[in-house]
Design brief:
The complex is a heterodimer. By secondary structure, chain A is an alpha+beta fold. Chain A has 3 helices and 9 strands; from the N terminus they run βββαβββββαβα. In chain A, strands 1-2-3-9-8-5 form a 6-stranded antiparallel β-sheet. Chain A has a 3-stranded antiparallel β-sheet with strand order 4-6-7, with no helix packed on it. The radius of gyration of chain B is 18 Å and the shape is globular. Chain B has 7 helices and 11 strands. An 8-stranded mixed β-sheet of chain B has the order 7-8-9-10-6-2-1-11, sandwiched between helices. In chain B, strands 4-3-5 form a 3-stranded mixed β-sheet, covered by helices on one side. In chain B, a hairpin with a 3-residue loop joins strand 9 and strand 10. Classes of the chains: A alpha+beta, B alpha/beta. Strand 7 of chain A pairs parallel with strand 9 of chain B, so a sheet runs across the interface.
């Protein structure tokens, strides 16, 4: 897990590039917990989202889960290959498994997310 | 430390949108109470519930269920013919040990049912795949009871081996209970259905044998109430919790809130969202 990632409590990760755009995915922990992914629905490019708002859904054999926007802003890119290759989420969740890119309204909002250590502590607490 | 409590409600039959709405309210209530809640309910008429991601056109094309009311669940999985099943909704906060992963709640409730059935002389077991389920061609079967997911409860004919798919179709057994979840922001809502008998209002691939059709002596089966009571007691034992059977039903005192949620499930655009 790269040190440059920030995490939402709902298990999405964000990597902010030099231009401020945040690449969003879901953590390896979340992918493993969901197991056997079968379908994914993604938002359209251009959609405005608020932090904590559902931006898509992912279905595994047993469960449907929402994907939440970790920051408010505009969806500027969507990984359209992902719904057809869901195993990418398990193989490379922090790179090729990216889901959307969001241009944040307020880049400072990133500061409210969890750093790697805090996220790992959260996962540990939820695993017991 | 106080013993955890599982609250249980039994509701009168209602229509599909009302039942789906009540279950969403149940999930919110679970989060507020910080406890596992269970709602058992019936259906006013035979109703088809679609999984959250199933295609509406597939339902319209299924001649075996034409003319029956449709409702789309918020949970995943395949279509279920309700009316001759025992339907439950269970809701638990994600902070609960059974809320952390999909399999935990699934297995807990299904294992308790397997033990319940064993106690009345019915040999059932949890189905386990011999390879990842996503590799199976029948993942996308339209009806839930034609699909197999790890932890499904299958009836085990006498002298058969552990139910898995390694022996082909013959080794799969008849699925009699399946469940599916909606993982909300703070809580997990699990829908499940125990097939009690084959529904006579559908035919062909929509008709699946239920418990009473599979056992050698259906007249010896206890009443549904006894099965439910035993099941809940075993669930509570596993959770080291007490069961509180609430009176008056879940729906009636929350009719206004449920009606608000039900409006979404009545909208054609919700039912036809995929």
């Amino acid at each position: 897990m790269a040190a440059d990632l920030k995490f939402a409590k709902t298990h999405e990760w964000v990597r902010q590039d030099a231009g401020g755009v945040g690449t969003v995915g879901i953590s390896a922990y979340a992918v493993e917990a969901l197991t056997d992914l079968v379908f994914m629905q993604l938002p359209p490019v251009g959609r405005r989202v608020k932090a904590g708002e559902s931006i898509g859904e992912i279905e595994s054999v047993k469960a449907v889960s929402d994907l939440y926007a970790p920051v408010s802003g505009e969806v500027v890119a969507v990984n359209t290959t992902l719904p057809g290759q869901l195993d990418t989420l398990g193989k490379d969740p922090y790179n090729a498994g990216w889901i959307v890119k969001i241009k944040p309204d307020d880049p400072a909002e990133m500061a409210g997310l969890l750093d790697r250590a805090a996220y790992e502590a959260l996962v540990k607490s939820q695993s017991h | 430390m106080a013993t955890p409590v599982i609250h249980v409600w039994c509701d009168e039959p209602a229509d599909g949108p009302t039942n789906m709405a009540a279950d969403e309210v149940l999930a919110g209530e679970s989060l507020r109470r910080g406890a596992l809640l269970v709602r058992l309910y019936g259906w006013e008429t035979t109703t088809i519930s679609l999984g959250a991601f199933q295609k509406h056109e597939d339902a319209l094309a299924a001649v075996e269920i034409q003319g029956l009311p449709l409702v789309r669940r918020p949970s995943g999985g395949g279509a279920i013919v309700h009316g001759s099943d025992l339907t439950y909704a269970a809701a638990v906060p994600k902070t609960h040990p059974w809320g952390a992963s999909p399999q935990a709640l699934y297995d807990a409730l299904h294992e308790a049912l397997v033990r319940t059935l064993a106690g009345i002389g019915v040999d059932a077991a949890l189905w386990r795949p011999s390879q990842p389920v996503s590799a199976h061609a029948d993942d996308e079967s339209f009806f839930c009871f034609d699909r197999r997911a790890s932890g499904d409860v299958v009836f085990r004919p006498a002298a058969s081996a552990e139910p898995d798919d390694s022996a082909g179709q013959a080794g799969r057994g008849h699925k009699i209970m399946g469940s599916a979840q909606r993982r909300l922001e703070g809580a997990v809502l699990q829908h499940g259905s125990l097939l009690l008998r084959q529904n006579t209002l559908v035919h062909g691939r929509a008709a699946h044998p239920g418990l009473a059709d599979l056992v050698a002596a259906p007249a010896d089966l206890p009443g549904n109430g006894q099965i439910v009571d035993r099941w809940l007691d075993l669930v509570a034992r596993e959770a080291r919790a007490d069961v509180v059977r609430e009176t008056g039903g879940f729906l009636a005192p929350r009719a206004e809130e449920v009606a608000g949620y039900a409006a979404r499930f009545r909208e054609p655009r919700w039912t036809a969202r995929r």
